[in-house]
Amino acid sequence: MPRGGARGTSKGIPSATVSRLITYLRVLNGLEANGLERVSSDLLASEAQVSAFQVRKDLAYFGTFGTRGTGYTVSNLRDELKRILGLTRQWRVAIVGMGRLGQALADYPGLVEYDFELVAAFDVDERKVGRGFGTVLVRALDELPSAVSELDIEMVFLTVPVRAAQAAADAVTGAGVKGILNFAPTVVSVPPDVRVENVDFLAALKRLSYFLHEDGVVPEDPAA
């Protein structure tokens, strides 16, 4: 079966554009917090570390939001980006896999700030079932289908070991969940109507290693 999280969206918007919209939203939040009411594409581009042309191209996929010569109203553009990104409503989230990472995510306060509500947690380890982490009690994984229906779970953080990732993903999609944030450093196969976003910090570290090496920041190992 094809993998979720493809390079484009169902509306033909490049995934890279969606990623930049998230950056623009973060920049706009910061500008508004500093009392700025209007922003030019040049300033927004500088803060987001892209070109002004890229900013205008990304926004043009979704409409016209600014005025030539005066730029964008910060609050209006922020609200439009939240609407585009689906951040004007609360999303109900569960964690599957309550190891150290799952426990850390359960305690993370930033979810609520962006309207992601943690409503459940699941594990196959009977020693964890019934324990509380953050605001939720851990349930047995076989309770997932009934919990999805009962709690309207829409997204799942998959924080299980690699060897358990595909089976856990099958359980999640079988329960009817359409969005998975996959923290396991492996590819999981899902039905075509399910979206998967992969979070692989080891891959990010390897990319950082490459760029530092290419820039000459990290010398060759003399013993190699």
Largest sheet: 7 strands, mixed
Helix content: 40-55%
Secondary-structure element string: HEHHEHEHHEEEHEHEEH
Kindly report the average pLDDT value: 90
How do the strands line up in the largest sheet?
A: 5-6-4-3-7-8-9
Catalogue the unreliable spans.
1-7
Taken from the alpha-carbon principal axes, the silhouette is globular
Structural class: alpha/beta
Please indicate the percent range of residues in DSSP E strands (runs of 2 or more). Answer: 15-25%
According to DSSP, the number of beta strands is 9
Radius of gyration: 20 Å
Count of separate DSSP helical elements: 9
Calculate the terminal CA-CA distance, rounded to whole Å.
42 Å
Which key phrases capture this entry?
seven-stranded mixed sheet; globular; 9 helices; 9 strands; two-stranded antiparallel sheet; 224 residues; disordered N terminus; alpha/beta
General description of the model:
With 224 residues, the protein is an alpha/beta fold. 42% of the residues lie in helices and 17% in strands. The protein contains nine helices and nine strands. The chain has helices at 15-33, 41-48, 52-60, 74-84, 100-106, 110-113, 144-151, 162-174, 201-214; strands at 38-39, 72-73, 91-96, 116-123, 132-133, 136-140, 155-158, 179-182, 195-198. A seven-stranded mixed sheet has the order 5-6-4-3-7-8-9. The protein has a two-stranded antiparallel sheet with strand order 1-2. A hairpin with a 2-residue loop joins strand 5 (132-133) and strand 6. The chain starts with 14 loop residues before the first helix and ends in a 10-residue tail after the last helix. Mean pLDDT is 90; it is low at 1-7.
